[in-house]
Amino acid sequence: MDAKILAAAVFVTCGLAITPARAADDDELRGLFACLPLTADAARLACLDRETRALQQRDVADRARPRGDAPRSRDTRAERAARSEEEAFRPVDDVLVEATLFAGRWLFATKANGVWQQATPVELGRSPRVGDRLRVRRGALGSYLANVGDGPAIRVRRLR
Protein backbone atom coordinates (compact mmCIF):
# COMPACT_ATOMS: atom_id res chain seq x y z
CA MET A 1 0.00 0.00 0.00
CA ASP A 2 1.28 3.48 -0.82
CA ALA A 3 2.54 5.46 2.18
CA LYS A 4 0.56 8.59 1.27
CA ILE A 5 -2.70 6.67 1.02
CA LEU A 6 -2.01 4.92 4.31
CA ALA A 7 -1.26 8.22 6.05
CA ALA A 8 -4.43 9.79 4.65
CA ALA A 9 -6.49 6.79 5.78
CA VAL A 10 -5.04 6.99 9.29
CA PHE A 11 -5.92 10.70 9.54
CA VAL A 12 -9.48 10.15 8.36
CA THR A 13 -10.23 7.04 10.42
CA CYS A 14 -8.73 8.37 13.64
CA GLY A 15 -10.87 11.50 13.41
CA LEU A 16 -8.23 13.88 14.64
CA ALA A 17 -9.76 17.16 15.64
CA ILE A 18 -6.78 19.39 15.11
CA THR A 19 -7.71 23.05 15.16
CA PRO A 20 -6.15 25.37 12.56
CA ALA A 21 -3.95 26.97 15.21
CA ARG A 22 -2.63 23.57 16.31
CA ALA A 23 -2.23 22.28 12.74
CA ALA A 24 0.23 25.08 12.10
CA ASP A 25 2.40 23.82 14.94
CA ASP A 26 4.99 21.54 13.27
CA ASP A 27 6.27 20.12 16.57
CA GLU A 28 3.11 18.13 17.19
CA LEU A 29 3.01 16.68 13.67
CA ARG A 30 6.73 16.04 13.32
CA GLY A 31 6.50 12.56 14.89
CA LEU A 32 3.65 11.62 12.57
CA PHE A 33 5.54 12.71 9.47
CA ALA A 34 8.60 10.81 10.65
CA CYS A 35 6.62 7.59 10.17
CA LEU A 36 6.04 8.13 6.45
CA PRO A 37 9.55 7.21 5.17
CA LEU A 38 9.43 3.78 6.86
CA THR A 39 9.30 1.09 4.18
CA ALA A 40 8.08 -1.90 6.17
CA ASP A 41 4.29 -1.84 6.34
CA ALA A 42 4.07 -3.26 9.86
CA ALA A 43 6.64 -0.80 11.23
CA ARG A 44 4.96 2.18 9.48
CA LEU A 45 1.54 1.16 10.77
CA ALA A 46 2.84 0.74 14.33
CA CYS A 47 4.55 4.14 14.13
CA LEU A 48 1.42 5.87 12.78
CA ASP A 49 -0.75 4.22 15.45
CA ARG A 50 1.62 5.34 18.21
CA GLU A 51 1.82 8.94 16.94
CA THR A 52 -1.91 9.34 16.32
CA ARG A 53 -2.64 7.98 19.80
CA ALA A 54 -0.26 10.59 21.25
CA LEU A 55 -1.96 13.36 19.23
CA GLN A 56 -5.38 12.25 20.44
CA GLN A 57 -4.24 12.22 24.07
CA ARG A 58 -2.82 15.75 23.75
CA ASP A 59 -6.02 16.90 22.08
CA VAL A 60 -8.19 15.42 24.86
CA ALA A 61 -5.94 17.02 27.50
CA ASP A 62 -6.14 20.39 25.72
CA ARG A 63 -9.92 20.25 25.55
CA ALA A 64 -10.22 19.29 29.22
CA ARG A 65 -8.06 22.19 30.40
CA PRO A 66 -10.20 25.20 31.38
CA ARG A 67 -9.52 28.41 29.53
CA GLY A 68 -10.27 31.73 31.18
CA ASP A 69 -11.06 33.57 27.97
CA ALA A 70 -13.16 30.83 26.35
CA PRO A 71 -16.94 31.28 26.53
CA ARG A 72 -18.83 28.84 28.67
CA SER A 73 -20.63 26.31 26.55
CA ARG A 74 -23.77 25.90 28.64
CA ASP A 75 -25.19 27.88 31.51
CA THR A 76 -27.73 26.51 33.88
CA ARG A 77 -31.06 28.22 34.19
CA ALA A 78 -30.05 29.53 37.63
CA GLU A 79 -26.82 31.05 36.25
CA ARG A 80 -28.74 32.81 33.45
CA ALA A 81 -31.29 34.13 35.93
CA ALA A 82 -28.57 35.42 38.25
CA ARG A 83 -26.77 37.12 35.37
CA SER A 84 -29.97 38.74 34.11
CA GLU A 85 -30.63 40.01 37.64
CA GLU A 86 -27.20 41.67 37.66
CA GLU A 87 -27.69 43.22 34.21
CA ALA A 88 -31.31 44.19 34.81
CA PHE A 89 -32.47 47.78 34.66
CA ARG A 90 -32.73 49.38 38.05
CA PRO A 91 -35.74 51.67 38.41
CA VAL A 92 -34.86 55.36 38.60
CA ASP A 93 -36.21 57.48 41.42
CA ASP A 94 -34.46 60.83 41.23
CA VAL A 95 -34.99 64.58 41.32
CA LEU A 96 -35.16 66.74 38.19
CA VAL A 97 -32.35 69.25 37.80
CA GLU A 98 -33.59 70.41 34.39
CA ALA A 99 -36.80 70.05 32.36
CA THR A 100 -36.84 71.47 28.83
CA LEU A 101 -39.53 71.39 26.16
CA PHE A 102 -37.82 70.68 22.82
CA ALA A 103 -39.69 70.02 19.56
CA GLY A 104 -42.90 69.14 21.38
CA ARG A 105 -41.22 66.64 23.70
CA TRP A 106 -39.81 67.07 27.17
CA LEU A 107 -36.17 66.44 28.09
CA PHE A 108 -35.58 65.48 31.71
CA ALA A 109 -32.14 65.69 33.34
CA THR A 110 -31.61 64.14 36.77
CA LYS A 111 -28.82 64.39 39.31
CA ALA A 112 -27.39 60.89 38.97
CA ASN A 113 -29.33 59.01 36.31
CA GLY A 114 -28.73 60.86 33.05
CA VAL A 115 -31.03 62.49 30.54
CA TRP A 116 -34.39 61.10 29.46
CA GLN A 117 -36.57 62.23 26.54
CA GLN A 118 -40.32 61.94 26.17
CA ALA A 119 -40.85 59.33 23.42
CA THR A 120 -44.48 60.04 22.52
CA PRO A 121 -45.97 63.53 22.34
CA VAL A 122 -48.51 63.14 25.15
CA GLU A 123 -49.82 66.12 27.09
CA LEU A 124 -48.63 66.18 30.69
CA GLY A 125 -50.98 67.33 33.42
CA ARG A 126 -48.71 70.28 34.21
CA SER A 127 -45.29 71.45 33.13
CA PRO A 128 -42.46 69.68 34.96
CA ARG A 129 -40.35 71.84 37.25
CA VAL A 130 -36.87 71.60 38.68
CA GLY A 131 -37.08 69.65 41.93
CA ASP A 132 -39.96 67.41 40.78
CA ARG A 133 -39.57 63.70 41.40
CA LEU A 134 -38.86 61.55 38.29
CA ARG A 135 -39.60 57.83 38.53
CA VAL A 136 -38.63 55.62 35.57
CA ARG A 137 -39.48 51.92 35.36
CA ARG A 138 -39.32 49.21 32.72
CA GLY A 139 -42.25 49.14 30.30
CA ALA A 140 -43.37 46.57 27.74
CA LEU A 141 -41.01 45.31 25.02
CA GLY A 142 -37.92 47.10 26.32
CA SER A 143 -39.50 50.52 26.65
CA TYR A 144 -39.48 52.77 29.72
CA LEU A 145 -42.32 54.53 31.52
CA ALA A 146 -41.80 57.62 33.62
CA ASN A 147 -43.88 59.58 36.10
CA VAL A 148 -43.00 63.23 36.68
CA GLY A 149 -44.24 64.33 40.06
CA ASP A 150 -47.72 62.88 40.56
CA GLY A 151 -48.54 63.03 36.82
CA PRO A 152 -49.56 60.19 34.54
CA ALA A 153 -47.03 57.74 33.12
CA ILE A 154 -45.40 58.72 29.85
CA ARG A 155 -43.16 56.71 27.55
CA VAL A 156 -39.50 57.87 27.64
CA ARG A 157 -36.14 56.88 26.17
CA ARG A 158 -32.73 57.30 27.71
CA LEU A 159 -30.39 59.70 25.92
CA ARG A 160 -27.37 59.38 28.23
Structural notes for this entry:
With 160 residues, the protein is α+β, with helices and mostly antiparallel strands. Helices cover 38% and strands 24% of the residues. It contains 5 helices and 6 strands, in the order αααααββββββ. The protein has helices spanning 3-14, 20-23, 26-34, 41-64, 77-87, and strands spanning 92-102, 105-110, 115-118, 133-138, 144-148, 153-158. The protein has a 6-stranded antiparallel beta barrel. Strand 1 (92-102) and strand 2 form a beta hairpin. Helix 1 (3-14) runs parallel beside helix 4 (41-64) and helix 3 (26-34) runs antiparallel to helix 4. The longest helix is centred in the first third of the chain and has 24 residues, at 41-64. It is rod-shaped, with a radius of gyration of 33 Å. The N and C termini lie far apart (71 Å).
